[in-house]
């Protein structure tokens, strides 16, 4: 089993779209794949599950979801039935594991653990009770259930992002050739390397995914060249901007299922092939 986390502290870089499309290609290749959505915006969940995972003021979030797992970690779930209080409190401490909260998608071999808009409300309690390794332990228990796990993270370096990095084997960094993204990239990498030193020595920076790339424009070419000159692990395959991505969002269909012959779909397939090749970890 291989677990990848897709992470950038800056929003709007295509993080959720990249996560979903790589996970969908993985499943289409016959690998049993789980997508875990840790972003309260739930874009990845909605991209795959559609209206079922879309919430409003009148419509609650899809359940069960990742918040229910963390509620379980905190012991917030109430025991039901005829169990006495003493026995109930003992059973509450016995985790059901992540599989209890997973939903099957419309696509073979692709399952989703959806996000919750109120996930952030648990962060302080989880931090204060030192539950930072619980997601890692739960994912390790899935070794016989999945071959690939993709984790979408919030656009912030918080408890949930740190939990994902601790649980992951590899991290992919979406990058959109924006000057602000370039300035923030070194800080982002420092956070990842600090997590590697303190919590997860096996974590590898698998690469920087250049997204919304315009090869005809001078600035994107200069920015990418500068990153490469600095020795940063820029992946060879880049992703261009295309209206086809928004159309696939509207149809709740990853590109491999929505427009298999499109150039952007082919770019995603080439990217997936690139990261699936054996590669050395990034050393600063």
UniProtKB/TrEMBL annotation:
<dbReference type="InterPro" id="IPR050678">
    <property type="entry name" value="DNA_Partitioning_ATPase"/>
</dbReference>
<dbReference type="InterPro" id="IPR025669">
    <property type="entry name" value="AAA_dom"/>
</dbReference>
<protein>
    <submittedName>
        <fullName>Cobalamin biosynthesis protein CobQ</fullName>
    </submittedName>
</protein>
<feature type="domain" description="AAA">
    <location>
        <begin position="5"/>
        <end position="205"/>
    </location>
</feature>
<dbReference type="Pfam" id="PF13614">
    <property type="entry name" value="AAA_31"/>
</dbReference>
<dbReference type="InterPro" id="IPR027417">
    <property type="entry name" value="P-loop_NTPase"/>
</dbReference>
């Amino acid at each position: 089993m291989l677990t990848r986390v897709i992470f950038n502290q800056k929003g709007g870089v295509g993080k959720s779209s990249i996560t979903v499309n790589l996970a969908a290609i993985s499943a289409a290749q016959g690998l049993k794949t789980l997508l875990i959505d840790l972003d309260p915006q739930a874009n990845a969940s909605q991209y795959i599950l559609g209206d079922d995972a879309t919430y409003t003021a009148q419509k609650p979030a899809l359940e069960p979801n990742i918040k229910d797992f963390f509620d379980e970690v905190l012991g917030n779930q109430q025991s039901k039935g005829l169990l006495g209080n003493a026995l109930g409190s003992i059973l509450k401490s016995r985790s059901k594991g992540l599989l209890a909260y997973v939903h099957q998608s419309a696509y073979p071999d692709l399952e989703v653990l959806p996000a919750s808009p109120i996930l952030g409300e648990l962060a302080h309690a989880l931090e204060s009770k030192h539950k930072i390794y619980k997601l890692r332990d739960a994912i390790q228990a899935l070794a016989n259930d999945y071959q690939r796990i993709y984790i979408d993270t919030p656009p912030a370096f918080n408890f949930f992002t740190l939990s994902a990095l601790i649980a992951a084997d590899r991290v992919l960094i979406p990058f959109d050739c924006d000057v602000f993204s370039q300035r923030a990239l070194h800080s982002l990498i420092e956070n990842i390397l600090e997590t590697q030193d303190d919590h997860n020595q096996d974590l590898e920076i698998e690469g920087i995914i250049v997204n919304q790339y315009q090869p005809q424009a001078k600035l994107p070419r200069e920015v990418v060249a500068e990153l490469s000159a600095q020795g940063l692990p820029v992946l060879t395959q880049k992703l261009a901007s295309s209206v086809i991505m928004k159309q696939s969002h509207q149809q709740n269909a990853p590109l491999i299922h929505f427009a298999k012959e499109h150039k952007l779909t082919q770019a995603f397939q080439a990217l997936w092939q690139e990261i699936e090749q054996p590669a050395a970890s990034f050393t600063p």
